[in-house]
Design brief:
The complex is a heterodimer.
Chain A lengths: L7 E7 L2 E8 L5 E5 L14 H7 L1 E6 L17 H14 L5 E6 L2 H11 L4 E7 L11 H6 L18 H6 L1 H12 L6 H11 L4 H12 L5 H9 L5 E6 L7 H10 L3 E5 L6 H4 L1 H16 L6 E4 L7 E6 L5 H16 L4 E5 L4 H7 L3 E2 L9 H8 L7 H6 L2 H18 L3 E5 L2 H9 L7 E6 L11 H21 L6 E4 L18 H8 L1 E2 L11 H11 L6 E6 L7 H17 L3 E6 L16 E3 L5 H6 L3 E5 L2 H9 L4 E4 L5 H13 L4 E2 L7 H11 L13 H10 L3
Parallel strand pairs in A: 3-4, 3-5, 5-6, 6-7, 7-8, 10-11, 10-13, 11-12, 13-14, 14-15, 15-16, 17-18, 17-20, 18-19, 20-21, 21-22
Antiparallel strand pairs in A: 1-2, 2-4
Helix pairs in contact in A: 2-3, 6-7, 13-14, 13-27, 17-18, 22-26
Chain B lengths: L7 E7 L2 E8 L5 E4 L15 H7 L1 E5 L18 H14 L5 E6 L1 H12 L4 E7 L13 H5 L17 H6 L1 H12 L6 H11 L4 H7 L6 H10 L4 E6 L7 H11 L2 E6 L5 H4 L1 H16 L1
Parallel strand pairs in B: 3-4, 3-5, 5-6, 6-7, 7-8
Antiparallel strand pairs in B: 1-2, 2-4
Helix pairs in contact in B: 2-3, 3-9, 6-7
Classes of the chains: A alpha/beta, B alpha/beta.
Chain lengths: 706, 289
């Protein structure tokens, strides 16, 4: 799912070639993001758009040859003049007057020529890894392969693929080689997949025509230098010093000749906009605000000793489980630190729980891109590939991190409490100078594990992600002031992080403190359970079976399968009363109905129903299953297919507590479900006790830092 | 030892009066740090100068009555428009065409006059704890002003010491009282020692001469309305000398930006120099762009 959708989109027809554009936000000034087509398209700006569009107006276009624009194959249709007319047409169609041009790679030469011919339309130029001809140093591989462009080479490889015929016949090979070379930064698998994917939306013919069209009417060095020197607008150049497409000396030369500003990103390659989005976002904003003279907002700064102690609590919105345990921790923390003010940066559905509990929700929470909607969009049937879903959440994580960082810089917080707040932990390790206040990282699992369906490649990917995390923490031990594992060392899976990497348990014991499990509620005593049953209207002679899929919106298929088992189960267990809780995101009205079957949408304090049930049928999520363990209720659980956390981490933990009956969704038909209902309903579990002091222990670990 | 020493030290002569100035650094633009009430002199910028001078050219000068300037007893030398003339004379002497002017307390009044007299030479204005006459007085001070020329009670307390006769009889005690009020923040012994020390470099006769000049509410409002350059206001919320309502009103009149420093007193530049310096640099950089 995208982090933000355009407010408006349109197409301009350019002599039969459609040029697609999008408009985001309504601030000032307008920024036009120009991709270096046809090798990529407007999605290359995905990590920048949400942030920039919150303050400015952002126009993107898919240049000709890729994205949702036309794909002409003759070189004249790709001349610089034609492409610049495309940009002018988008400026006009999008009702943009003057704009800041933001361009990447060779798109900068279009931008310079445009600024030179239409100075009235250009407020400023942000040149990212600019590919302006002649300036600075060329990369030697372009110089060496250029003269052989039209030759038919025998079995070309590497940079030799920079050749018209190779590009046409071995398009994918060239693209994979090219971006493999460009992404010099370790752990760039996602950026690489994205870049290759976008490039392959076009063809070798179009790409070759694009290269040739760009070089038509090639300018002399003097022309380029004069045009740059006479450029009458402020420029900002951003350049990775390891860029092997456009040499960093080219960026330096461009900044120098335009008398502009230069940000060199050390250790970065050609795609800083994708690989260092936080730094690039901040650099663009600082530049635009400065040239626009956007005044410092009125604000208050408090003297250090005058400040109240403040915490910002960031609770993962993926599933409802974090919310309840985080509220429990917050309440325990308030007992230890009564003067502490806690504000929450959170989103639906966490905010529902917080609102019920009377917690303070920071207003910037409304700006967050929805992580739970993304996860729901990634699910299909009884399946959620949660590792890939997290990877594909990259633009949402950047967008939300940028919001978090703004909140933090305005808010003078003493401490940040992140319960699986992946964005904060990741981007603070990537941008360690941005860390403010103490930081507590909390999680209930450590280590991405590959699912068998992903094969060798997924083993490689999960190991790469784990390795990056391990390197992050080794290099910057100061980013996590405390790491809290919500559980015990025995809950950690007996696996390794990947080939050549440590054992997960050894590493986690070395780097974490253990709070024990945190349910966020007290299981009822026998007397209380009887009272709750009466209060909820469950009779002593009934066998109450609660069927629930939590709050995520994922799980309709499981509900339907269990519902279809109901008639058979009811015959086997006449006193059966089945209660289906669809959750806030599934409309119960759309589910099949049977006589005697009850449906509910969102139920407040569902754990009370679960705690007094005679059987529960659930997915493999940790929160719900552990609530059942704590209340010692029998339950059947169906982990989502390809969900590594439910299939490995949660299952391992439940086995340790000797709790629950694992069910394979694909292998289980309604008859089998009915049989399991008959076998388990009302049979109390012989489980290990669940800790009751987890929240207090976690709070004590946090209070040290406040 | 000072943290940085001036590249140029000089004196300008204006209407027969000698005024000392100093120039630090060579960057662009120039920042002119204006004198304030002459009970202190240009050393009160000591926590700003080294930082600012690394980025900009910084010019400081002493007004009449303290520091390296003549101890004039002529009230005319202390009018706000005279201070504006001194500032222009110093800029001329340093060969500076235009500058960002920063004024503390009464210095805000001098800075406003400067911007009004020579708008083309003032790129931007910063006012700190602005003592502008807008008819807003800090609580407890009003009656003190009324009795300024009367005799003081036997055991004067608080603002009763803000009294001309008391200045002459118990000058040092008055300065201790006054700077205690300026530094409403806890743990301010060092800045109080500093300011009292600077106060003792001048004398009550000088302060008496200076006290004869003040600007009316009406002309202040007019000048503020006409102020065309960027303006930053910095005001402590615990300022016991000048209420932060003054800066809020100035922000309303001018549309300028206000940085409220919560828990700070009248001289946040001395007591919270880091935040103050960063705010100043941010503003200067924005104005210069």
């Amino acid at each position: 799912m995208r982090a933000v959708l355009p407010d408006r989109e349109g197409v301009v027809d350019r002599s039969g070639v459609p040029i697609h554009y999008e408009v985001y936000g309504d601030g000032e000034p307008t920024l036009i993001l120009i991709p270096p087509t046809p090798i990529t398209h407007s999605r290359i700006w995905k990590a920048l758009i949400p942030y920039l569009a919150r303050q400015y107006r952002v126009v993107t276009l898919d240049g000709r040859g890729n994205g949702r624009s036309g794909r002409p194959v003759d070189m004249e249709a790709h001349s610089r003049a034609v492409v610049q007319e495309d940009i002018l047409a988008v400026i006009e169609a999008s009702d943009t007057g003057q704009a800041v041009l933001v361009a990447h790679c060779h798109a900068n030469w279009w931008a310079v020529e445009l600024a030179s011919s239409h100075p009235e339309l250009v407020r400023a130029l942000v040149a990212i890894e600019p590919g302006v001809p002649h300036l600075g140093k060329p990369q030697p591989h372009w110089v060496e392969t250029g003269p052989h462009w039209d030759e038919i080479l025998e079995d070309p490889s590497g940079w030799e693929l920079n050749n018209r015929h190779a590009m046409v016949t071995r398009h994918r090979e060239w693209i994979e080689f090219f971006f493999g070379e460009q992404l010099v930064e370790p752990h760039s698998t996602k950026q690489y997949e994205d870049a290759v994917g976008w490039a392959l939306e076009s063809t070798g013919e179009v790409l070759a025509a694009g290269e040739e069209g760009f070089e038509l009417d090639w300018p002399q060095r003097e022309v380029v230098e004069r045009m740059c020197r006479e450029l009458a607008v402020p420029t900002l150049t951003i350049h990775g010093d390891l860029d092997i497409c456009q040499h960093v000396e080219r960026g330096r030369a461009f900044a120098e000749i335009t008398n502009g500003e230069l940000v060199v990103i050390e250790g970065a390659g050609h795609l800083t906009l994708a690989r260092e989005p936080v730094k690039v976002n901040h650099a663009i904003k600082e530049f635009v605000d400065r040239i626009e003279g956007i005044p410092m907002r009125e604000h208050v700064w408090s003297r250090g000793l005058k400040r109240r102690k403040r915490a910002l609590y960031v609770s993962s919105p993926i599933g409802l489980g974090h919310a309840r345990r985080d509220v429990a921790i917050a309440k325990e923390l308030m007992k230890l630190e009564p003067d502490l003010e806690i504000e929450w940066l959170a989103q639906d559905p966490v905010t529902r729980v917080l609102a019920e509990e009377g917690q303070t929700i920071h207003p910037a929470s409304d700006w967050l891109a929805s992580e739970s909607a993304h996860i729901a969009s990634e699910a299909s049937g009884h399946e959620l590939h949660c590792f890939q879903a997290l990877r594909r959440m990259d633009e949402i994580l950047v967008a939300n991190f940028m919001i978090f960082q703004e909140v933090l810089e305005e808010g003078l917080y003493d401490i940040v409490l992140g319960d699986e707040a992946w964005d904060i932990d990741h981007f603070w390790h990537e941008n360690p100078e941005l860390k403010r206040g103490s930081h507590v990282w909390m999680t209930d699992f450590v280590g991405f594990l590959p699912m068998p369906s992903g094969g060798d490649h997924e083993e490689f990917l999960t190991a790469d992600y784990n390795a990056e995390m391990i390197e992050h923490i080794a290099r910057y031990p100061r980013i996590r002031d405390r790491s809290v594992f919500v559980g015990s060392p025995d809950d950690i899976v007996p696996e390794v992080f990947g080939p050549g990497l440590p054992k997960i348990r050894d590493w986690t014991e070395e780097h974490f403190d253990f709070s024990g499990y945190i349910t966020g509620f007290e299981p009822p005593t026998l007397d209380q359970a009887a009272a709750w049953r009466a209060e909820l209207g469950y009779g002593d002679d009934e066998k109450v079976c609660i069927v629930t899929v939590g709050g995520s919106g994922v799980g309709r298929d499981l509900l339907e399968k269990v519902i279809s088992a109901y008639p058979m189960a009811k015959r086997a267990v006449p006193e059966l009363r089945m209660v289906v809780v669809a959750g806030p995101r599934i409309d119960p009205a759309g589910l099949p109905s049977h006589e005697g079957l009850e449906y509910h949408g969102y139920i407040q304090r569902l754990y009370r129903h679960l705690a007094v049930s005679d059987l529960a049928i659930v997915q493999g999520g940790l929160t719900t299953t552990m609530e059942l363990v704590a209340a010692k209720r029998p339950f059947l659980y169906f982990p989502l297919r390809n969900h590594f956390e439910q299939n490995y981490h949660v299952r391992h933990r439940l086995d340790r507590y000797r709790a629950g009956k694992y069910m394979d969704y694909a292998e289980t038909d309604p008859d089998a479900i009915a049989a399991e209902i008959a076998a388990h309903a009302g049979v109390a579990g012989d489980y290990l006790d669940v800790e009751r002091d987890g929240a207090a222990r976690a709070a004590a670990m946090i209070a040290d830092l406040v | 030892m000072r943290a940085s020493y001036p590249e140029v030290e000089g004196q300008v002569s204006h209407n027969g009066l000698n005024l000392g100035y100093e120039v630090f650094g060579a960057g662009d633009p120039t920042v002119l740090l204006m004198p304030s009430w002459t009970i202190i002199h240009s050393r009160f910028w000591k926590l700003q100068v080294p930082y600012l001078a690394r980025h900009f050219r910084v010019v400081t000068f002493d007004g009449p009555g303290n520091g390296h300037s003549d101890r004039s007893l002529d009230p005319h030398h202390y009018s706000a428009s005279s201070y504006a003339e001194y500032a222009l004379a110093v800029l001329d002497a340093c060969g500076v065409e235009s500058a960002i002017a920063v004024g503390l307390s009464r210095g805000a009044q001098y800075t406003l006059h400067l911007a009004s007299m020579a708008p083309d030479r003032v790129l931007g204005v910063v006012m700190v704890g602005a003592a502008l006459s807008l008819g807003i007085t800090a609580p407890g001070r009003e009656s003190a002003f009324e009795r300024f020329h009367q005799s003081y009670p036997e055991n004067p307390r608080g603002w009763e010491k803000y009294n001309l006769a008391y200045w002459h009889d118990h000058y040092e005690d008055f300065t201790r009282f006054f700077f205690d009020q300026c530094f409403s923040e806890q743990h301010s012994t060092k800045p109080i020692e500093d300011t009292v020390g600077w106060a003792l470099e001048t004398n009550p006769a000088v302060l008496e001469a200076e006290s004869a000049n003040w600007t009316s509410t009406k002309s202040t409002r007019e000048m503020l309305t006409r102020l065309a350059c960027p303006l930053l206001l910095i005001h402590g919320t615990d300022d016991r000398i000048i209420s932060d309502e003054v800066s809020k009103e100035v922000a309303r009149i001018t549309g300028g930006t206000l940085l409220s420093m919560e828990g700070s007193g009248h001289l946040p530049l001395a007591r919270d120099p880091v935040r103050f310096n960063l705010a100043l640099r941010d503003f200067i950089a924005r104005v210069a762009a």
